[in-house]
UniProtKB/TrEMBL annotation:
It comes from Rhinopithecus bieti (Black snub-nosed monkey). One of its GO terms (cellular component) is Golgi apparatus. This is Palmitoyltransferase. Residues 214-252 are annotated as: Disordered. The lineage of its organism: Eukaryota, Metazoa, Chordata, Craniata, Vertebrata. Keywords: Acyltransferase, Golgi apparatus, Lipoprotein, Membrane, Palmitate, Transferase, Transmembrane, Transmembrane helix. Its main location: Golgi. Signal peptide: none annotated. It catalyses: L-cysteinyl-[protein] + hexadecanoyl-CoA = S-hexadecanoyl-L-cysteinyl-[protein] + CoA. InterPro entries: Palmitoyltrfase_DHHC, PFA4/ZDH16/20/ERF2-like. PANTHER family: PALMITOYLTRANSFERASE ZDHHC23 (PTHR22883:SF475), ZINC FINGER DHHC DOMAIN CONTAINING PROTEIN (PTHR22883). GO terms for biological process: protein targeting to membrane. The chain crosses the membrane at residues 86-103, 109-128, 137-155, 167-184, 300-320, 340-367. Belongs to the DHHC palmitoyltransferase family.
Length: 410
């Protein structure tokens, strides 16, 4: 009987094949097929929000979030094999920056108001997204579009005046391309940690212990932060770092265990709550590249800042020398008679001041990076030392001595 029995073959359930999408169709967040032309149809939350806005009634935060989610889901462009989703944070800089700069060119007082409000709005949006731990393409879009728009204004308003030669234009163009190349390199992998490679150095019993401890709450671990990761490598708890413990001991592994990524972090690595992954020798999460600055891309980040500063100062010098002749660069920046007499020179002068503001901010970041490198500390370690009150402020707060990794040549 047993020999005559044949195994029963299970019939495979044939899944219905999905029809290919055309260039204007897409699958929305509800899993249904939709069309780009129907982006304003069947939106009850948007209708309710418009009705409340017309009747001067307040909107609930939940309604605003649903409206933004609907807009971000339906904001798409036609593409091959289905419409592609466009990140809504890219659009404001593309629209607002030219409008603000053209308005600032109308009068000197308007220029002061607009150029003062732009950094304030950018800082407000930064702290808003930083507090929510959200990724945003706003600053990356603002930076790239600012580079392109400043170069466009330079070609349209400054070069035709005849004061800029071909060699000077070629040098400025090469600087622009070098900035983009360095940014592209800085956008690459900053040194993400691979959980598989980290787990090989641990035994199964250690992994089981760490998984159980990592899922517990902060009870018993004084170095636990709000993201669930553990860190006891502070000058207050252990001035000599973790050198007292063997590399493979369970205590050392428990201190460096990341409950989010389920791995043991090497020294000076940290878990980025915005990117959601651990990074080797993490310096900080940079909104201008929408990514972390770590062990693998720190040099490219510094190089991008340096090339940007040189190119920006060179472009500012060429522009001021063209629209304010026979004056030094510093004098022309604050005193340039007749610059608002025609719209072309007024727009160029406004763009110069916008570039000066951006360059000053990047110069401050570059200075802080050089100081941190000279003291062999990262920005993450500086902020942690200031929060835990284990660092010493020097030189009006520009230098922070953490006392951890700057006591010897590494």
């Amino acid at each position: 009987m047993k020999g005559s029995m044949k195994p029963v073959k299970k019939k495979k359930t044939e899944e219905p094949e999905l029809e290919p999408l055309c260039c204007c169709e897409y699958i929305d967040r509800n899993g249904e097929k939709n069309h780009v032309a129907a982006c304003l149809c069947d939106c009850q939350d948007l209708d309710e929000g418009c009705d409340r806005w017309i009747t001067c009634k307040s909107l609930q935060p939940e309604t605003c979030e649903r409206i933004m989610d609907t807009i971000s889901d339906r904001l798409r462009i036609p593409w091959l094999r289905g419409a592609k989703k466009v990140n809504i944070s890219i659009i404001p800089p593309l629209v607002l920056l030219p409008v603000f700069l053209h308005v600032a060119s109308w009068h000197f007082l308007l220029g002061v108001v607009v150029l003062t409000s732009l950094p304030v709005l950018a800082l407000w949006y930064y702290y808003l997204t930083h507090r929510r731990k959200e990724q945003t393409l706003f600053f990356l879009s603002l930076g790239l579009f600012s580079l392109g728009y400043m170069y466009y204004v330079f070609l349209q308003e400054v070069v035709p005046r005849g004061r800029v030669g071909p060699v000077q234009l070629a040098v400025l163009t090469c600087g622009l391309f070098l900035i983009l190349l360095a940014l592209y390199r800085a956008k690459k992998n900053p040194g993400y940690l691979n959980p598989a490679s980290s787990d090989r150095s641990l035994s199964s019993s250690q992994l089981e212990l760490l998984n159980r401890k990592g899922q517990e709450k902060t009870k018993g671990f004084p170095g636990t932060d709000t993201s669930g990761s553990l860190n006891n490598r502070t000058a207050k708890d252990d001035p000599k770092g973790s050198s007292r413990m063997p590399a493979g001991s369970p205590t050392k592994a428990k201190e460096d265990w990341c409950a989010k990524c389920q791995l043991v972090r090497p020294a000076r690595a940290w878990h980025c709550r915005i990117c959601g992954i651990c990074v080797r020798r993490m310096d900080h999460h940079c909104v201008w590249i929408n990514g972390c600055v770590g062990e693998s891309n720190h040099q490219a980040f510094i190089l991008a800042l340096f090339i940007f500063l040189l190119t920006s100062v060179y472009g500012i010098t060429l522009t001021l020398d063209t629209i304010c002749r026979d004056r030094s660069v510093f004098t022309a920046l604050f005193y340039c008679p007749g610059v608002y007499a025609n719209y072309s020179s007024a727009l160029s002068f406004t763009c110069v001041w916008y570039s000066v503001i951006i360059t000053a901010g990047m110069a401050y970041i570059f200075l802080i990076q050089l100081i941190n490198i000279s003291y062999n500390v990262t920005e993450r370690e500086v902020q942690q030392a200031l929060r835990q009150k284990t660092g010493r402020r020097l030189l009006c707060g520009l230098i922070v001595d953490t006392g951890q990794y700057n006591r010897a040549h590494l």
